Structure of DEAD-box ATP-dependent RNA helicase RhpA:
Amino acid sequence: MSDIENTPEQVRFADFGLAPEILRALTDQGYVHPTPIQAKAIPILLQGRDVMGAAQTGTGKTASFSLPIIQLLLAHASASMSPARHPVRALVLAPTRELAVQVAENVAAYCKHTPLRSTVVFGGMDMKPQTAALRSGVEIVIATPGRLLDHVEQKNISLGQVQMLVMDEADRMLDMGFLPDLQRIINLLPKKRQNLMFSATFSPEIKKLASSFLTDPITIEVARSNATAEKVSQVVYKVNEDHKRDAVAHILRQREMKQVIVFSNTKIGASRLARGLVTEGMKAAAIHGDKTQQERMQALDSFKKGEIDVLVATDVAARGLDISDLPCVINFDLPYNAEDYVHRIGRTGRAGASGDAISIYSDKDERLLADIEKLIKQTVPRGTLEGFVPGGFRSDERHGERRRDRTAADRSAGERPAFERSSARPSGSAGPRREKVDPWFLKPYEPTRSNATPATASAATPAKPKQKIAALLGGLPKG
Ligand code: AMP
């Protein structure tokens, strides 16, 4: 990492009294100075206190909890081959496979010069290799909640000696309906343990969860609670409701944007916008709940490879997918739930890089904008779209695509289908949401292994473009 923001005082990792093995690993990574969250959290965690951290991915939060865990567990480290000498002592829970893998990679890098062992378990994969790793003995386990419980049920793991618990991206875990699983897991842990919770946003539900399992926690914020990333420059453009797609096309074209995610509140809106952008000659694809898993994976892979410039997504579709560090996110619709705005724009401007968060809104969205500004405690600057001439967007209707547009899936999508609605709930609503979320999204991102040509909706692909577009935008039966 090069340009991540460090603490102004230029504290050094060596100042924390970390073991030489850990400092060596940090030197291997090229880290000398802690980031603000690390500077605040590491000394507190080393004292054994519970911590509630308000920090997004990209702030260096993973090392802020991993380094103290490793330091504290070093006292128990054993070079023995016996699994019994390597009980699970630290458990990190993460909402998605991608995040779990990312955390596990960090932990493995930080403990590589120590005898401590770590592994990661997540759903959607064969359990056997995970079982073998667990049974050989590991001190640090990083897991998605559902798969962890599967392993518990199969007696592949015992949680009776866990002394440190981390809930990473706790807000997303709640959004994804993991609350019952989290409660089951907590019940399996020893009562006396150190607890850490990280969350980008602090809704009443998160506070309730925190009060139920943290003991006298110290709250650490690297930015104001619910604040938007400082380096993200935000702007809103007000247009007529009918001209929103024109406006998105105009912005994309004018700025020649690549690697942009455009958020739509509805599946039908995402499909139509992606299709329209393709018609306009842009490399765009939609990703939402009516896509088959294969379609979504292909669209995501193509986006990551740069074969697609614009990914149009619903909130639920974007959740759980590792799409971050983007130069720009565009809100085609303002989200119904203001906290989704924070999540959306958190996809950009990460790890010290700057980013743009552009939102389009119309008269009827004034209320949503007011809610967002209240939450982020800032007024988002109102911009003017230079050179914007509405009406340029060639609509589906004009291209005779209306019939194809109204696929059964789109019709059934109606206004907002049940699982899409879950992301639009007011943050104060309680209760598990899992059944309302499309189960596919509970499976974190799996890289596509097939060599099949990605079904990307790319107007730049000359061969049979219509077929490709149809495949991506709901023309295929579900797998
Ligand atoms: P995280 O928020 O934990 O996902 O970290 C974001 C990125 O910052 C990751 O790529 C880390 O490898 C990197 N990083 C973490 N700590 C530091 C540090 N102290 N100095 C430089 N980069 C860091």
Observations:
- The pocket of adenosine monophosphate is lined by residues 1, 4, 31, 33-35, 38, 57-63, 351 (CB under 6 Å).
- The chain has 19 helices and 14 strands.
- The domain at 232-440 is CATH 3.40.50.300 (Rossmann fold).
- Confidence is low (pLDDT under 50) at residues 395-479.
